[in-house]
Amino acid sequence: MNVKKVLLFIALVSAIAVALSQTVSLFGGQHTWYDLGPAGSDVPCSKCHADICGELSVSGVHQNLGSGSEACAACHRCNLTCYTNASGEGAGSTPGKEVHAASTVPCMECHEVDTWSPYAGGFTNKTNSLYQYADAAHNGTKAAHNVFVQSAVNGTLMEDSNEACIQCHTNVAVDITYHIPRGYEIELNRTCGWNVNLSYYNFTDVEVRG
Ligand code: HEC
Ligand code: HEC
Ligand code: HEC
Ligand code: HEC
Q1: Could you tell me the pTM of the whole model?
Q2: 207 and 183 in contact (C-beta within 8 Å)?
């Protein structure tokens, strides 16, 4: 083989290599689509949220919602009052309206009513779409954590009261600073002419703490 032929051969191989590199895909699999036909979400949520799928699968709660993406969809694409479904599942949903793949959900979307999920006791009546758990009959005044839950409703970090639900019901780390009053001040006003029996006010058992 003379030098001319060798050079010609090299030029030909280079030309083929350049032509080939324009047709090779950058990522394998990018033209294989997930089949969206069957019910539920067929885009695997675990592809990107594997940590959450792992957590959910070992959780004692919500196992009845399904497994894999089906479980995610049960909450994140449930038939919400103020959100429409992503895919068109369920009645009244409009694909592409408000959410696409998933929506952020309030726990109370399900736990306010006990038709198919147990209700979070004491918080059964929402009076408007913003989930205020207060009406004349169920105002939560006896609930020790009502203020906590109401503050979460007002907080903007998460939907509705989710901050409170998640802090108590999940393993998420919680850092709370309590400002607890350490004493009481008692003022007794005796009105002239009112016959007060002072033995009613025997406060010897009240401990004063700084
Ligand atoms: C290709 C990767 C990918 C897939 C697949 C995916 N997600 Fe996400 N998801 C993300 C990214 C990235 C974010 C953060 C985006 C952001 O905060 O705007 C996110 C955020 C979220 C959030 C939080 C939104 C918020 O406002 O806090 C939820 C809920 C969620 N995804 C649910 C799902 C569900 C359910 C599925 C399955 C149907 C899914 N995702 C599939 C990448 C993905
Ligand atoms: C799509 C509806 C739905 C949403 C949203 C939802 N849950 Fe549930 N939850 C259920 C159902 C159904 C059950 C009972 C079946 C099960 O545990 O699988 C349940 C069970 C529970 C239980 C166990 C009750 C028991 O008696 O053992 C707790 C606690 C709970 N959920 C808390 C939450 C919290 C906190 C959130 C928000 C982070 C939440 N749930 C969001 C539907 C839902
Ligand atoms: C029982 C209901 C429930 C199930 C089941 C569930 N989620 Fe969530 N998820 C929630 C709630 C409630 C939030 C908090 C939403 C908010 O207020 O921002 C949340 C938050 C998220 C976030 C945002 C987390 C962050 O750090 O901001 C992602 C991502 C997410 N979920 C993905 C998933 C995936 C993926 C699955 C399936 C493996 C899943 N979820 C199953 C109720 C659920
Ligand atoms: C201060 C902590 C705290 C907060 C905040 C809280 N819970 Fe609970 N929740 C509990 C405890 C404690 C129980 C009873 C647990 C038991 O019986 O083992 C309970 C029980 C439940 C149950 C089971 C009821 C039943 O009848 O089986 C559900 C569902 C529930 N909570 C959901 C929620 C939701 C949703 C929120 C947010 C609005 C929430 N919880 C807020 C502590 C809390």
Answers
A1: 0.82
A2: no
